Automatic annotation (TrEMBL), chains A, B:
Gene3D superfamilies: 1.20.1050.10, Glutaredoxin (3.40.30.10). Residues 8-87 form the GST N-terminal domain. This is Glutathione S-transferase domain protein. Coiled coil: none annotated. Residues 90-216 form the GST C-terminal domain. GO terms for molecular function: transferase activity. Keywords: Transferase.
Amino acid sequence: MNPILTAFKTSPDRGRGLARDMPARWALEEVGQPYDVRLVTFAEMKEPAHKALQPFGQIPTYEADGLVLFESGAIVLHIAERHPGLLPTDADARARAIAWMFAAVSTVQPPIVERERAFLLERDKPWFDARQPALEQEVRRRLEDLSDRLGDAEWLDGPFSVGDLMTVTVLRRPAGANLLADYPNLAAYVARAEARPAFQRAYADQLAVFEAASAG
Amino acid sequence: MNPILTAFKTSPDRGRGLARDMPARWALEEVGQPYDVRLVTFAEMKEPAHKALQPFGQIPTYEADGLVLFESGAIVLHIAERHPGLLPTDADARARAIAWMFAAVSTVQPPIVERERAFLLERDKPWFDARQPALEQEVRRRLEDLSDRLGDAEWLDGPFSVGDLMTVTVLRRPAGANLLADYPNLAAYVARAEARPAFQRAYADQLAVFEAASAG
């Protein structure tokens, strides 16, 4: 039996690989593990049957051999622990790769999501413009530190790892991505990751879901 | 040689256990691993020597036997992997405990931090009051789902684990904690965690640092 991911039946990102199933698909493609997808609507995500799998009514979930997991970071780490290729074998390097996963979701991502939420939810508010500079500055602080650390390296810490996979996932969100031109090494880093065949396959698969739903 | 954590020389939380060294201290106390602390000032945190350890100029860092780690979640997980007591031995239960860690820092925490940042940075802005209901509602959505999942269980998934440690750490932040009275099972859950001897020791130690700095 293949593992099963849940994903949006109609993703609000219109298939641009920004929904949270994308990092899980990408990790499964990197390690060569086939998987199945069960699509859910927004209404279904908030129903008890889905919340039994995902307490916050979100996607993705991951089901395999009786295990039910949620949180894209946890799913990606679980996949990386069960297949070679996404975590270094050296114990210290492995711990550092996991540190980059946590940095991606809890340090780099929050100001990006906050800026994104202002665009989505406060665009028509009288304070929208006045809040923009501070929101942008918070994103830039993280991008600048990340750019300084990456330098001219190919990946954050040795070979491509789950740390890079989650960091690139976060950097692709538009509220950060639309500033990346000012950080050429980060822009090149994201482009390198997007060129990986596993990313391409995952991207094509999630886009196909959106296109099928739109055509249906 | 004991592991070394970095922590604020003068914590902005005035020793209330809200700085990011707290979960690392707590985890080390839970597993009975002695540790040393190196205190850093705000200015020192932004200097190259500290940024070589922590790319975003934050605390804590963790140094042990040549390994340098950052991100409190990653440090807590690393400690839990090297000592018994904070991660289930069953592989599936272990993966679920790690899922709760990611849920804590990337799903429960962001709206709490966003509400906190409005209190800290936008208190004097003309839009402060108008934004409050939506900010509060976002926190409540997470608390309600978490409360539903916890139910009348003692901990989130079997015995106390790193998942509880990180979730309680997040729930203790005032911008969420000041709503907990409406979720009695979450309030009791946090109180149970705070009553643990390991929490008490970690709390006392970080408070002693603040009091020594204030007296100095």
